[in-house]
Amino acid sequence: MNTHANRLNEIKNQSVANSVFQKQSSSKSTFQFVDNRLGTITQRKLQEMANNSQQAQQVAQLQAMTDAYTSQQQQIVFQLAGGANAYDAGEGAYWHVHYGDHVKFGGLAETRINFDGRTRNKILRQLRAQRNVPPQSQKGGATYIQCVNWILRNR
Domain of life, per the record (predicted)? Predict the structure, then answer.
């Protein structure tokens, strides 16, 4: 009888020891071995040369320029709202294109340029002449550029 009970205790102790070993072995190793085989060393050197090449640097510069351009384009927001405040470009209190009909600054009637019967170049010339009618602010400059871009694409 005792032998059967002792045998059960041994089995329980082994299973506890195994679970502790499994928990310890699943943890991350504290030692990192470096592969110093000739092929691996050669591959590492070639990769380092490729990463430091002029082409890789040019690709990195182009990627940075692309990221900057994309970020800049995302910052330019076109308001498309319904009703009386529908603007194709810009903002109502600043430069805006209203329903593709005209461009003007805020509510200033003297800055309004109607599109009917005018070529794109004529509209842009008139717009340039009025650019500084209201004092320029950062928001005014940004909405002016939005309107010019809209006119270039749509007129």
Answer: Bacteria
